[in-house]
Every structure is written in structure tokens, then in C-alpha cells.
Amino acid sequence: MRTATVPSASHSSNDKRNRRAETTVAAILAATEAIVLRAGSDRISVLDVCELAQVSRGTFYRYFASQDELLDAFARHKRSSFQQAMADAVVPFTDPDERFQALVRYLDNYAAHGQARLLLRAAPEYTLRLFGRLFHESLARIDELMRTVFDSWDRRLGIRIDRDLVCEMLIRCVLSELVVPNRRPEDGVQRIVRFLYSFVACGTSER
């Protein structure tokens, strides 16, 4: 007869410490975002972050060696959140067209309603560097998430489409929308979608 494994006291204690650490880091990053949005990245201070996050300076330095390290971690956090939210938006859909539309809705919403535009206004140089890293990381992630979509388009067209180009067009469209917003917000990322679908539909009808 098998008996259930009872977690050891040390294992349970480690889990609690890890959860506490995650909660503390999340509070520090949330405070960082609030201060950057309010005053910009140049005026952020460890003291202000600690006060808003309600942690001591000793606790802060347990996780971040300096203010610069905090800003680097915050940028990684924003990029990681973007990638994870994008995956969460598309993974539930297996139909290629529905999956692509889910990606478009996410990108459109990110450009129109996300915090990125506010960050750009508050801390332009810092946010543009963040965008640069986000651009390169997103190319590979979109290609991975849209693999079944691109396979479907290949079959419809009878050719292999330039996947790198499509991914680049999508992410460049989002970033350009953040930097220079469209005069008609309802267009947004949808413009590039209409172009891509017209290309796919045209190729299908000519076969």
C-alpha cells in the first residue's frame, strides 16, 4: 500500500519564503512603475521606492544591488509581462484564423490601452531602450506562437511566406503606433491585418 508523501517542514518553510520574496519583489516593481510614470526614470530613488512599496532599505538591497539594477529588472519585467500576456491571449485558440485574430486583438489593445505609451511620455529614453529589446525578443516569440497560422497560410498560397517579415511588420506596427499614434484609433494594428489577409486571399484566389 502506497502512502502519501508528507512535505517536510523545511520544504514548507522554503515555499513560504519564496512566496514572500515574490510578493516583495512584485511590490517593489509596482512601486517602481508608479514612480517612473509620475516622475520619470531619472528621478527615481531607492528611498521613494521603499516608501511606496512599504519595505525597508535592507529588504530592498536583499533583492537589488542598486537603482540601476532595479531599472534593469523593471525593464525585464515589462518585457516578460508582454510576452506572457501575448501567449496567454493566443494559446487557447487552435484554429489558425482565430489564433491570428487573437494575436491582433492583443497587440491592438496593448498599443491603444497599455502602459507603454504612458511610460514613453514619462521616460522616453528609458522606454525606447525597452522597446528595442522588446522588438528583437518579440520576433522569435511571435514566430513561435504563429507557427500553425503561417503553416496554414503556406498551404493556402502554395508557397512558403516570409515569416520573419510578417513578424517584423506586426511588431513594428505596434511600436510605431505607440510612438506616433494613428489619427483614427480604430485602425491601429488592424491596417496591417487587412493587408496581410488581402495578400493571403489574393494568393488563394489565383491558384
TrEMBL record:
Coiled coil residues, start to end: none
Keyword terms, alphabetized: DNA-binding, Repressor, Transcription, Transcription regulation
Ranges of residues in domain HTH tetR-type: 22-82
GO molecular function, one term: DNA binding
Gene3D superfamilies cross-referenced by the UniProt entry: Tetracycline Repressor, domain 2
UniProt xrefs under InterPro entries: DNA-bd_HTH_TetR-type_CS, Homeodomain-like_sf, HTH-type_Tx_Regulator, HTH_TetR
Pfam family, one: TetR_N
DNA-binding region as annotated in the record: 45-64
Name of the featured protein: AcrR family transcriptional regulator
Upper classification of the organism: Bacteria, Pseudomonadati, Pseudomonadota, Betaproteobacteria, Burkholderiales
